[in-house]
Amino acid sequence: MIKIVLDTNIFLSAILYGGMAKTIFKLILENKLELYVSPDLEDEVLRKLKEYGAAEETIEYAALFLNHKSISISPHIKVTLCRDPNDNFLLELSQTAEADYLITRDKDLLELPSHKWKKTEIVKPETFLPQLRSMKIIR
Predict the structure, then answer these.
(1) DSSP secondary structure code for residue 120 in this structure
(2) Which pTM does this prediction carry?
């Protein structure tokens, strides 16, 4: 199974707006992708939803999704590579999970050399979904 990490911006996009990010959520629900999260990522997603004024039921849905459709791990490594130090926790999570993909729209992460961190490819949803099509995971 393909192991992924989603940046907070992808969670917010899927939950609040839909589109390609919601397609990724659907694939997670169908057990076609394995989602990894950390306590830091869970906290940030729920905090940002509150900051954006999401309805309480939306926040509850996000919490249930995080609790039931993801694998929570606590990275025990420190990374200081990213231009924005607030993004390093995603690299730590990706490395610890040995994720195949980190899906983001964050320019600081997308500008890393070779769009990779260790074994993890760093891609936008617009790149990720066509890759899944070419692997025949989706149509």
Answers:
(1) E
(2) 0.94
